[in-house]
Design a protein that fits this description.
This protein has 416 residues and is of the alpha/beta class. It has two domains: 242 residues, Alpha-Beta Barrel (TIM Barrel), CATH 3.20.20.70; 85 residues, Arc Repressor Mutant, subunit A (Orthogonal Bundle). The protein is 40% helix and 21% strand. The chain is built from 13 helices and 21 strands. The chain is globular and about 55 Å long. Bound molecules: S-adenosylmethionine and iron/sulfur cluster. The site of iron/sulfur cluster has 11 residues, from loops.
Length: 416
Amino acid sequence: MKKATALRVWLTRSFKPFLFRGEADERLNFQEVKRVGLYVHIPFCETICGFCPYCKSPYESKKAARYVKALIGEIRMIGKQCAGVKEATSLYFGGGSPALLREYIGEIVEAVGGYFRVTQGIGVELRPSDVNVETLLSLKRAGVSKISIGVQSFQSAALAQLGRPAPDTAAIKSALAQVPFETVSVDLIFATPRQTFEDLRRDIDTAFAIGANHAAIYPFVNFSFAQNRGGTMGEREKRALLYRIGEYCEGKGYVRTSVWTFAKESGALYSSMTRDNFLGFGCSATSLLMDQFKINTFSVDEYINRVGETRLPTSLTLRFTRRQRMVYYLFWTAYTARIDPRGFEDTFGVALEKEFGLELFLARAAGLIEKKNGIYRLTRRGIYYYYYFEQFYTLAYIDKMWGVMRKTAFPDRIAL
Ligand SMILES: C[S@@+](CC[C@H](N)C(=O)[O-])C[C@H]1O[C@@H](n2cnc3c(N)ncnc32)[C@H](O)[C@@H]1O
Ligand code: SF4
C-alpha cells in the first residue's frame, strides 16, 4: 500500500477512499457555520507559465466580461441561500491573474457585499508587473487591503528555470511606497533545482527590502502535467534548505504564521486556505463545508453555461464521514503550525484528545509536536514532516484530480 493511502486508512479508520462524485447540491449548508472564508477565482492570464498547475486560460476581454457576469450569478445563487447578511472572515481573489479584471473587482466585491460582511479584509493575488500605482489605487478603491505578489524568485537562474521574467524591483518598491496595504506578501518558491540557501536568503531579504511585510515560501511542486525543465531537488537537500529558511527567518525576528509563511509585522497575514470552512466562487474554486468538499468545473465555457442555466457549476462533490471531516480539519489547521484543541471541540463537540489521543501521543513521542499553554505546536521536525506529507497529498491527490479536471469539465467520479 502506498504511503499516502496507508496514512489515509489509519487516520480515517476506514478503507474507503475519498470518493468524489459528479453530483451537486443546489443548496449548500453554510448558514450555521461560524467562521466562513470566501474565495473568488479569476482564471485568466496573459501568458501561461509551464510550472503552474492552477486553472487558467489565455485572457480574452469578451470572454472575461461573460465570466464576470456568470461569477456574479454564482455569488447571488449561493448568497441568497442565507437570510440577511452573513459574516465572513475574509475574501481572497486568486487565479490566474485577477488584476487583468481590475475594472470588475469593485463590482464583484459589491456583489459579495450584498450577502456577506467581510470582517478581516480583502486580498488579491498579483503578478509583479501588476504592482504599479494605477492598479494598486484601483484595487484600494474596491476595498482591497491585502496583496500577494507572485515573484517566485529574484535570481536569474531560478527565473529561467520557471520561465518567468525578472521582476522590476525598483518599480515595485516605488509603487508600494506610494500605495500602502495592510499586508504585502511576496510568494517565493524554494527547492527549485540547484537553488542554494544563499539564493533563497537573497530572495527573502529582497522581498522585505522592497516593501513586503509577509513572505510565503512555497516548496516547488513538479506536477505531472506541468512543463518543467531541470528535474527536482533531492529530499535531503530540501530538508536542509527548509530548516535553514526557518532558522534564518526566525533569527531575523520574523514570525512563522504558517508552515510556509513568515510575517515581519504583527497583523500581516495572507492565507485563503487556513479557514475551517470556505465558499469558493468561479472556475475550479473549492468549497469546504461541514458535510462536503466540492469543486467547480475547470472549464470557463462550461462554467458560464451552467450558471446561465441557474445551476451551480459544481463538478465533483466529496461527502464526508465525520471522521474524514475531522482529518480534513486537522490537516488544514496543522498548516498554521498549531492546533488549538478548543477550536476542534468548538467545531465537532468532542475533545480532540478523545478522538485522536493515540495519534497525538505518537506525534509527541516522535518529536513532531509539543504542547505549550494547552496548544499543540509543530516542531521543526513536525514542520518538515507536514511538508513531506503535503507533498504526498499534492502529488497523490491534487495532481491526479486536477489532471482529470483539466480535460473533463464534469467527470463521473474520482476515487483517491
Ligand atoms: C496562482 S499562482 C500565481 C499568481 C500570479 N498569477 C503570478 O503569476 O504571480 C499563486 C502562487 O502559487 C505558487 N505556485 C504556482 N505553481 C507552483 C508550483 N508548481 N510549485 C510551487 N508553488 C507554485 C507561486 O508561488 C504562485 O505565486
Ligand atoms: S503563475 Fe500566474 S501568470 Fe503564470 S500561469 Fe500561473 S497564474 Fe498565470
